[in-house]
Each structure stands twice: as structure tokens, then as C-alpha cells.
Amino acid sequence: MHFFYPKINFMKKILLLFAFTSLKIIVIAQFIPPPNFDFSGTKLRWVHQAKNHRELIKNGFIDNREVLTTQTAQIIHQDYVYYLLDDLDRPIQGSTLLCLDLDKGNLRWQRDFNPIEDKQKYGYSYQQTQLNFINDSIELIGTTKIDTSFVVGGPKYVIGGFANKRYISKEYGSDISNQTYNDPWKRSCLSTPVVSKIDNKEFSHFYYCNNDYTNFNTGEDFYNLIPYNLDYKLEPIQSNDTSKWIIFKDFNLQGKSTFGPYKIAEDVYAYFLTLERLIGRVYSYEHFFWTINSNGDISNFSNITALINSTHKSTIFYRVEYISQNDYFRIFTNSPNHDRGLIYLTKNAELIKNQEDLQIENKYISHLVSKELNNQEGIIHVLRFQTEKDIHIYKEINGNFSRIGHLKQNDSYIYDYIPQYLTLSENNDPIISLTTLLDTIILNSPPLEYGGFNFICKIDAKELGLNTSIDEKNKTNILFHFSPNPTSQSFYFHTPTHGQLEILDPSGKIVLHDKIVQEHNNIDISAFISGIYFIKFISFDGKIQVEKLIVNKL
Question: What confidence category does residue 542 fall into, taking pLDDT thresholds of 50, 70 and 90?
């Protein structure tokens, strides 16, 4: 008996394997519900899910367009939150800008700057630092990605780096003007946000462009940051003044990251740069700092590697913030064990404080965002600990950390909610943007994490025991705040004073008595049964405040 074995060439086998794997992923994905941002603990005032207007599958489950790595950030301007999402240079996508009501989180308008929405089928990429509010309009400066063809009927290419300047209405988000310099042979290669200035009512935009160069006479490789200016037509003009160039020998260079510009004084802007080199099998890092003016003249160029790598030689930083109210830089670091930390530098890049090996409650941090409080001492940190899924909120004063809030994740274990950016309203209400990571090991794929499903939420400052401008006027009448309410196991008790805490049942019997000597306290009520109780606080000077507490064990 002869058996017939069909002959399938190697490429067909690959295609069949790919089709089978893709089908398996689609089938499995259809049984994975999207995240619903289910948290208990500290009460949220509002939460909003930000979604790009793309072609989505109709059943509402995960698909490839939804599961993307997205960078998010937000700006508070007047009574609105402007929430920006960017798809991190994915070929045919673009940024999305949402305008939300600050008080209630209602969506006022949304603009999607991607080929699906654009008449020319262009994609536009913007960053939070490139949003400027001018009277009744918003200026956005970024880059355009064009899906084009050099030859009619030929292959299509997605080409980026075309300079773009757009003005939209603050009230409606609609275009006022949109300008792109789209000469494919003279792209702008915008690699960093621009420094803008206005002279005689004409705009001039300075920026750096990454450039790798080989000296064919010596065979040496170089990495350069070459300064460019965009004129009013957005045509890129390269500076031939090499004194304005940043030049490094490309010796085993594996990666580079530029951070800036940060305005630290009138017409003075700061930049940071990290270079990654591979020496044998060991990675090493160099870190640099310099300042420029709007013409690109360099000053204060310095190597700050010794400051950044004083604890670990392989420490890198992934975000830099300039805190103008305190005149310092906060650098978010990532150590070899993927632990997050902080380094503070003066505006001249001198060390203030090193929290590179930051631990809170003897636990290392996996994700961290921070912001200084308004009109009072302290820093708010929103973070996740290593191997934990919950989100914690801490207040730091002089290096001492007190937990003031806790978001306990009740959502599916396959999702991780990652804090990406933190802003505070003028009343110190935290607005937190998060992206959701999906562990693909559930799809029988390698254990990689993909982002998407972006959320933004607001917490009232009073829920965290933080003083607001209203509190400052009436703080003599308020002895304490507490949250959450209702609760089941514990609650946070915040008071600016000290005294005696009593919890009474409906009959007036004292079921808990405690002496309060700290501002932030975690009160354990795990032994309580469901019902209504009363919190009574007697301050050291005899003042009394009573509030109702609801315990719900369901």
C-alpha cells in the first residue's frame, strides 16, 4: 500500500503556520473581555476610557488595533483636561487629543490625527510638550507620516519626519489651520520637540536631528545632534555652524535617548542625553547635560555620568521633569533590576538628592509618577510595587513617605494598569492617566506585554486628606477627613492635629478607641460587622467632629 504525502514547499509551510497561529490567537482573543477599570478602596470622582476612533471588531473584544503601546499625558488648562495619546511612531497611526471637563470628566470633544480621519490620509504625531494655548486656539507642533508612492503603481512607503504645525479651536477641537512641509527629499527629521520663538510676529522653530555619520578618510563613526531651524513655511534649514552641533564618536553605540527642551529661564533651555554602548558583553551608559538659547548656542555642556551612575553603573533614566516652582529637575531612573527610583538635580545639573534605590515599606517600585503639591509642602507619588497589581498613593515630606490612598484592583488578573502621568489641579486633585498591559502568555505567545485601553481618572483631594484652597480658608472648622466610605476592612484617617479617635455603634457603645499622633493613619476595622457606625474625633484642644461610617462586608 502506498501513502500519498502532499509536497508543501517551505514558504507555504510558513504561511500555513502563520495562518493557524493567527486563527488560534483570534479565537482565544474572542474569549478575553476588555478591561473595565474595576477598583475599590479610595473613591474615584470620575474615570474615562480614551479610545482612538479606529476600525474595531463589532463584538467589543480585543483586536490588534486596540492592543497598542501608547504614550499618554495630560495638561490642565482653565476648567478642562487636555488628554493626549500617541502611538509611539507606529507606521500609519497618529495622536489623539481629548478635551474633558475637569469637574465631571465628561468628554467635550475628541480629535484623531490619523489616516482614517484625515482627508489626505496622513498621520500626525504630537507630544504633550508641543501643545501651546494661544487665546482661543491650541498650537500643536509635530511630525506628519505620509503613506505614499514614489512611482505610480509602485510599492507604498510610510515616510515620517515631515514638519507639521496645526492650530485647532479650544472650544470645538476643529481645525483652524494645518500646515505640513511635505517635500519627500527634504524631510525635517524632527527627533526632539522644538524650541519656539516669535520675532516680528514670525515663528522660528529650533530642534535637533539625529544623524549617524562615517568619516570615510579615517573609518570612524560619529553620532551627531545637528541643529535645524524651521522657517515660517516649515522648511528645515540645517545649521552649518558646527559649534552648535553635539558630536560623539560612535564607538560600539547601541542606543541613544534625548530629553528636552526644558525651559529653565528666559530663552534658556536644557537638554539631557543618554548613550548606551556595548563593550564586549557589558552595557555601559553615559549621561550628558547642556543648555541652549533659541538660536541653538550651547552653554554648560557637562558629563553627568558620575551623578546618575553613582549607585549602579547600569542605571538609566526614562523621564525628566523640570519643576519650575522649586527650580530643580526630577529624573526617573530604572536600575538593572528594573526598580524605579528618583534623582533630583539643580537647574545647573548639580546633585540635590539621590533616591535611585528607592524603597517604600521595604518594597521596590515597578512604576512611578510624581507631582509637587500646590501651595504646600510635599510630593504626591502614584506607584505600583514589584509583583503587585494594586496602585498606591503616597505623600512625601522631607524623605518620609505616608500612604494616603489605595486603589485595589478587582479586574481580571491578566491586566496590569500602569500609571503613566500625573497632574494636580489647583486644588490638588490628582488626575492620573494609565495604560493597560495585557500579558500575552495567555495567548500561548511569549510572555510579552502589550499596551492599550487607556484610562484617565480623577480623585478629589479630600479623599486623600490633602488640603485644597477651600480647605485653607475653612481648615479651622475641619478636624479630619477619611476614605473610603463605605468600606469593609480599613479606612484612611487624615488629620492636621492629634487627639483621641473613637468609633461608636448605633447604640453609642465605643467599639474602637485609639490615640492619633500622626497626620496619616490606616484604621483597621476588619473585626467589625456590616452596619452604620460613627467616627468621633476629639482634638488635643477639645474640639470635636463626628462623621458617619458605613461598613459593608458584602
Answer: confident
